[in-house]
Amino acid sequence: MNLKKLHLFLIISFACIYVSAQHDISISAEIDVEKKVLTIDQEIQFFNTSQDTLNKVVFHDWANAFSNKTTPLGERFSEDFLKRFYFAKDYERGSTIIQKITDTPLQKPLSWGRQDGNPDILWVETATPLYPGDSYTFSFQYKVKIPSSKFTRFGYHDNGNFSLKYWHLVPAIYDKEWKTYSHKNLDDLYAPASNYNINFTIPENYYIVSELSQDVKVSSKGDNYKSVVLDGLKRNEVKLFIEKNPTFYSFSTDKVDFISNIYDNHLMPEMKSVAIKRILNFLEDRLGPYPFDKILVSQNEYKSNPVYGLNQLPDIVRPFPDGFQYEIKQLKTITENYLENTLLINPRYDAWIKDAIHIYLMMEYTEQFYPDMKIIGKLSKVIGIRWFHAADLKFNDQYFLGYKNMMRLFLDQPLLSQQDKLVKFNQNIANAYKAGVGFKYLEDYLEDDEIIHQSIRNFYQNSLLKPTNSLEYKKALSDLSPKKVDWFFEDFIKTNTKLDFKIKSVKRKQDSLEVTIKNLGSHAMPVSLYGFNKKNLISKTWISDIDETKKVKIANDNLTKLVLDHDQKIPEVNRRNNYRNLKWIFNKPFQFRFLDDIEDPRYHQVFFIPEFEFNVYDGFTIASKFYNRTFIRRNFEYNVSPAYGFKSKKLLGSASFFNRHQIAEHGLYEIRYGVNGSMFSYAPDLLFRRFSSSVNFRFRPKDLRSNQKQRLIIRNVNVFRDRDEENPVETPDYNVFNVKYRYSDFNLLNFLGYTIDYQISKNFSKFSATVNYRKLFLNNRQLNLRLFAGTFLFNDTEKDGDFFSFALDRPTDYLFDYNYLGRSEDTGFVSQQIILAEGGFKSRLDYPFANQWITTFNANTNIWNWIYAYGDVGFVKNRNVSPKFVYDAGVRLSLVADFFELFFPVVSNNGFEVTQADYEEKIRFIITLSPETLIGLFTREWY
């Protein structure tokens, strides 16, 4: 009996050690503000809270993530097309220099090293085995070179201030294995709660701002320095702001001391204080008391994870009332810090639960204190703007729209996805929004608001300052829920299944209706069915377990309309099929709207907008564009644009109809079917009419962060041209069947793309291939290479001259694919426009076309910044003529790469062109007027 009691006592004692033991971290640091270097002596008393014997301990050294361009952090910046780190000066980057690692108190040197490929993860071997429940004290001496703040907003600032985050060594968490992750600018350091004692030496004219308690003492270095002693218990992170020019302000509340440098110059301090107290009271009510004396939120943190939308606009167009913009910023950042500092959850694999609580609390706060706030603020009352559906949307609707955007793009990813595998838009925005909206969905399904409120509070208080995970929240919710909630965790959280329900049919049964609900998704999740008599709500029924279809009977109390998810709590990919009108042939009325708008599922929407274009034959054209595309992409889209040319004085226009069909998550994931037609002038007083039908197969890898894309395009192009009686062409009308395969892997450092193209028509058949390669070297030198080769399989187009031939410098564009300002011009300014297709030459040579075969090689490299040297070489082969060697070289000004560039020829087969007459006519240019193409420059890092 005594042995059993002793055994039980040992188990309980070990469990207490496991739960309550905290690592102790002591740091003595000194900052050199001129050299931007920290000199650090650090002791870490590491407690082995596992049941394994350890022979080495692993530490995160995220300060060393900035040491070079090839670290995981550097690679992440490159993947996101953030050039500032790659092109930074060496002194702007950071690093850690380890001088000595010993144990304490013996001061015996210890073996250590860095993980292969992860220079920001450090391992240290212990001199003796570290048994369960024991501790081991490590002593480190090292220097940290502080990086520039322009990379992550933390580091040294140009004004002499310092914002320090991840600036010292922290032990990794061991749970059967070491949980180590490299710094990838995701703010997801997984560190244990530790007790800190820090002695920081700074110049006398600097101040330290932090969440730790602090005491200022005289420094041993002399009168020009001071020592700041900082203490804090159970902290998983220590952020320090060392400032010569103070930016922070503070408020004392009965809860905590609040510190921030998030400013709003339009607000009086009293109004800020009221807002902060309201936020802190709200969080205490919904979560529980904050366990620390201070809470600090910074502008750096807010900018890293802002409230995306109109509240980011400059103050001059402030669409929100005074105070709201400040309050919503603080709510976002305070809530995030509240959770980050107290919930010890693996942020790389289990971030969704904190995201869900975070966004859900923000939505609840807005509903409680700003229930009438619109998504566009005061703009919703402006005449003209208030007619848009966007003006009807509540502020909280933005969360569903952010997630819906990725669903419609087929880029949404499961909430349990590893954070560094997420597309940037998902990692920063969409996944957190989906998690928060999911809680609102769950709340509506449970039909009791208090269940979610209480489950969050119970989970928070039971998990406070100790390791936890989302399974603990599932248990907290299941204990309170009267309904089954497994579908939420197994289907909604674990998968990226698109929710989409529709009313398939309705049958009248005396005093009831038999409604068949079809689930267009692949998982059985619940949906609500509303019954209306005109505008009066009569009934609401929740329907669960819909695998494919399910029939449900509801009372027919003179119902005139049925609606699925009328309150729009369910994050469906398509809400347009949720309506069934029982008294009319059309389920929804038609609505015509001027300009783009947010999709309104209650109507069949048609948008119209004036559209302006230009070419030298039609002059300026004005079109009335009718279309159905909204701000968020739809699968079926159409565009009908009748136009008028002011110079040609002719009716012109274009139309297109296409539909996307997603068939898988990766591999062949999408098929797009489409038809389009257009009519414009191709020469003075001559029109062309083009009609095309196509099928587009799109492929992508399983890793959605990869930029690798493949596309197979099969199309048939019909062209009809007006005949010029003064210069008649033999083949004004023709048909071309075209099969094209494109591969691209577009990245900041390396780009590889190739195109294989086959065309067949009545009078010719041709095959060509284009390969593009770009390399950005570590010394910032960029090399661009391009190879083009094409040959005719048969060619019976002599009567048409070179209209169907391969072009050396300016394709004739007989398929009308390119946006020429003047496609038929041989002289004048617009004839100097080039499109880098086919031969890709910049100079006009004596052999501009090839009716048999052509091979060219184009290269350029940067001389300085956006100034490049280019060179082209190749062979042109025409029938009955021997192959001709062609070359040119010159200077390229890449003002906006691939969109606005100038080419200045220097030398070619024509000789030294700079000294030749009319040199200005030899200058060529690239110009892209497509807004969508230019927008791609700014969105590529997000998708």
TrEMBL record:
<feature type="signal peptide">
    <location>
        <begin position="1"/>
        <end position="21"/>
    </location>
</feature>
<protein>
    <submittedName>
        <fullName>M1 family metallopeptidase</fullName>
    </submittedName>
</protein>
<keyword id="KW-0732">Signal</keyword>
<dbReference type="InterPro" id="IPR027268">
    <property type="entry name" value="Peptidase_M4/M1_CTD_sf"/>
</dbReference>
